[in-house]
Amino acid sequence: MTPATPITEVVLRGILDSRARPTVEADVSLGEVRGRGSCPVAIAPGRLERRRGLNTGGLGRLRDGPAGRLLTDALTGCSPDGQAGLDARLRELDDRHELGADVTLAVSLAYARASAAVAGRSLCAWLTELGSSTPGPPRLLVNAFSGGIHRSGAPDSFQQVMAIPHAGSLIDDVHAALEIYGAVERGIAEGGGTPAISASSGFLPGDRDVSWQLGTLRRACPAETKATLGVDVAAEHLLAAPGRYRFQGREHASAGFGALLLDLARAHGVEYVEDPFDPVDTDAWRAFLPAAREAGVTVVGDDLFASDATRVRPGLADAVLLKPSQAGTVTATLDAARAARDAGLLLVVSHRSGETEDTAMCDLAVAVGAEWIKVGGPRRGDRIAKYNQLIRLTEGTPPPETGLPGP
Ligand code: PGA
Ligand code: ZN
């Protein structure tokens, strides 16, 4: 597994995410082979996840910034002990110099791509080997409406309302996603609205409430797609005080908020609820889980676990949401996936609200056999790049890595 070739060059550069805000991309060269990786950006990161660096914000080559210099000095000419060795070194640099999870992920991913290319494997096959996982296609979570942090003012609605097609195969689910998304768009236009979209390419519903969004989305799902619905409550951002949640102009205590969520789920056929409570409100999670199961709802922890293997445990949720940018390295992400499986939990691989055109999350989702993947609505290059990579991955054996994201 260990590439014999030492690292010959590390290049760090500032590029743009889907909100046209700066983020970080890295190129790592192993001799003639160059791998590339980048890090997406959260509009409002969870408070348990690893932090972004203090050194970035510029565009173009970050050669003279502290992060660029540190990485060049620390990594050029070194032969790390495979991905785990490199990632341990990156974590050490982060702990010591506040390099930031954005920088460590970009470098870690670039190294994974370069190593896969040296080994003659696709990124997906390489991640499967690194994680000793069982690969398989995920089901799509299709972002139809965006709210919460995507609206102006203090968030008081769900961050995402999603359709979950069960059309038969991943390709059929992509067809269904396009049909459902198009129907929502036409519905907004016919109602006299202008279909504006968020950073994650979900429609911004204006002042329409969550019941309207769920009802509209349900009506937009043709019967043959067998679609159900899902929501990302992102409750950490709804917190008014410990154990109290702002929602549509009112404040609710945890128990009442949980009951309200399940009423909405029953009324609209919601089968997936992500982050129903703040991560420290663990009593609420524990009480909600059996009631949600009874209602046929899968409970998913995003900010709850923050893609951190040490936080993953059973009894709070049915599934762990994996965001490589929360974990900070490829190894930490795969460790979180393994911890989830060991705890008997399902997996969701997720985008961030601000994405680049990097498609590694698709390879990761297939490599760990995630049950779901969330890549945003099917509009704009950063999201379409993911749909396209998923389409390619359905062919079975992808060609060896070229080092660059995409085809
Ligand atoms: P983010 O979350 O805003 O933290 O990137 C996106 C999501 O959970 O879908
Ligand atoms: Zn989330």
Q: How would you describe this protein?
A:
37% of the residues lie in helices and 18% in strands. It is built from twelve helices and 15 strands. Helix 2 packs antiparallel against helix 3 (101-119) and helix 4 crosses helix 11. It is globular and about 60 Å long. 2-phosphoglycolic acid is lined by residues 42-43, 45, 160, 232, 302, 350, 352-353, 374.
Q: What is the gist of this entry?
A:
The protein is 37% helix and 18% strand. It has helices at residues 66-75, 82-97, 101-119, 123-131, 170-190, 210-219, 254-268, 282-294, 324-327, 330-342, 360-367, 381-393; strands spanning 9-16, 22-30, 33-38, 60-61, 139-146, 160-164, 228-232, 239-241, 244-247, 250-253, 270-274, 298-301, 319-322, 346-350, 372-374. The longest helix has 21 residues, at 170-190.
Mean pLDDT: 94
Distinct ligand kinds: 2-phosphoglycolic acid, zinc ion
- Beta-strand level of the residues, as a percent range? 15-25%
Span from first to last CA? 24 Å
Radius of gyration: 21 Å
Shape: globular
Estimate percent helicity: 25-40%
User: Care to count the β-strands?
Assistant: 15
* Spatial strand order of the main sheet: 5-6-7-11-12-13-14-15
Which structural category do the helix and sheet elements fall into? alpha/beta
Instruction: Note the total helix count.
Output: 12
Encode the helix/strand succession as letters. EEEEHHHHEEHHEEEEHEHEEHHEHEH
Largest sheet: 8 strands, mixed, barrel
* Low-pLDDT segments, ≥5 res: none
